[in-house]
Amino acid sequence: MFAQGILIKNILLNGKEQDIYIEGNTIKEIGVGLEKEGTKIIDGRNKAAIPSLMNGHTHAAMTLLRGYADDMPLQEWLQTRIWPIEAKMSEEDIYWGAKLACLEMIKSGTTFFNDMYWHWHGTAKAVEEMGLRAMINAVFIDLFDPAKTKEQIVENERLFEESRTYSSRIIFSLGPHAIYTVSKESLIWCQRFAQENRLFIHIHLSETKKEVEDCLSQNGARPVEYLSRIGFLGPNVIAAHCVWLTDSEMKILRDHEVKIVYNPISNMKLAVGAASPWSKFRRVGLATSLGTDGASSNNNLDVFEAMKVAALLEKFSTDDPTALPADEVLNMATINPATAFNLNCGKIEEGRWADIAMIDLKRPELTPGFNLKSDLVYAASGNVVDTLICDGQILMENRQVKGEEEILVKAKQVAFNLVR
Predict the structure, then answer these.
(1) Which of 104, 282, 292, 343 has its CA 20 to 30 A from that of 319?
(2) Which residues of the chain have pLDDT under 50?
(3) Taking the CB of residue 291, how many other CB atoms lie within 10 A of it?
(4) Which overall architecture, per CATH, does domain 53-340 show?
(5) Rounded-to-integer distance, Cα 229 and Cα 215, Å
(6) Torsion-angle region of 257 (φ positive above 0: left; ψ -120 to 50: alpha; else: beta)
């Protein structure tokens, strides 16, 4: 249900003060001195308008495990702490964990995220209520068990049908976890089903050196080569991490128009052994977006922080201070994912969806303000976001989000009940 309209007055946009008129879920007009009767007026003075941010890879409900198990080796972390708790999670638990994630993302200027986690409906209901956009993956893990394969296929088909009851802000996709948890037969089924129904597929790919070594041992090919051989790769595939790639694998991904999501903070925290080769991605022509990963391996969902770390890690790992400049890393959090996920946002232009973050320019970390893009990447955190609009609806104004206190109390209660 849309208001009659929203008119943002005198806001800094593309270097000059302008007005932005929103009608329905769309940016209808941008100009100077706009006047519209019957609209909600938002004072944009001392603020800047930027496209709201997008999180290309996360596990939203893992907010419930934030800080629960840190500073551990990856496999020990998964097997002894994370997986046992996840096995206990109910749809209601996931709902509150996802609501907490949505709140955190709203407070830090993010309006879209690509999510892979259990209990699909728990996350979908949370996103629907909080007003965000999300591509929510139906997790597919069969552990090479034929009986589990059949069970997962039935579950994914059922969830796809049930997903039609949600608004257009909820996008159903398939989430085969990784090549080491999903059989070849299931990966082939996922691509066939996705093509038949015009769906995206989201997968973890070449995250660790061990994954590559195991694939070579078991399949006689590196992960990207293996997926190409079985016909899995395509323009509908979103591949998270992609740390351990050869030049030839990058070209295979490019030729299949696979989209990459770079997760610099979780890669560093979980010590996957290398930095994603963004500069090579760029040279090859791979479409690359930015992700935070889950809050148990980051430990927050602040895309501003992910932008800064991505830029610094690229400069450090390449010994090149000009690598991944501010404007390019901003694109990785805005227009790149909008294009990759086929969404009509990512820029503030007439005709695009009204997904807008209003930045408080009076924040000390944005002062003196020589270069807004540089300040957003190198100085800012999510706390600089004053007001957030998604799909033409105000989700946060003056840093206030409806229902915030209840979400914090309930999510904390759910989290501590899980670890008892």
Answers:
(1) 292
(2) 1-2
(3) 30
(4) Alpha-Beta Barrel (3.20)
(5) 13
(6) left
DSSP tag of 218: H
Exposed / middle / buried, residue 216 (Cβ in 10 Å: 0-12, 13-18, 19+): middle
The full set of domain ranges for the chain reads 6-51+345-400, 53-340
Answer for the pair 399, 363: CB distance below 8 angstroms, yes or no: no
3-state secondary structure 6-60: EEEEEEEECCEEEEEEEECCEEEEEECCCCCCCCEEEECCCEEEEECEEEEEECH
A 10 A CB-CB count for 370 gives 7
What is the distance of C-alpha 330 from the center of its chain?
14
- Residue listed under structure tokens 């201070």: 321
CA 48, 49, 51, 54 torsion: positive or negative? positive
**Cα 221 vs. chain centroid, distance in angstroms?**
29
Q: Tell me which CATH homologous superfamily contains domain 6-51+345-400.
A: Urease, subunit C, domain 1 (2.30.40.10)
Distances (CA, A) of 113 to 66, 175, 256, 303: 18, 14, 23, 10
Rg (CA), the chain: 21
Q: What whole-number distance in Å separates Cα of residue 211 and Cα of residue 203?
A: 13
pLDDT in tens, 380-399: 999 999 999 999 999 999 99
Note whether 138 and 173 are within 8 A (CB). Answer: yes
pTM (predicted TM-score): 0.96
The pLDDT of residue 83 is: 86
Q: How far is CA 120 from CA 91, 125, 157, 388, in A?
A: 8, 9, 12, 25
- The pLDDT, as a whole number, for residue 79 is 86
CA distances from 408 to 65, 96, 228, 412 (A): 14, 9, 44, 6
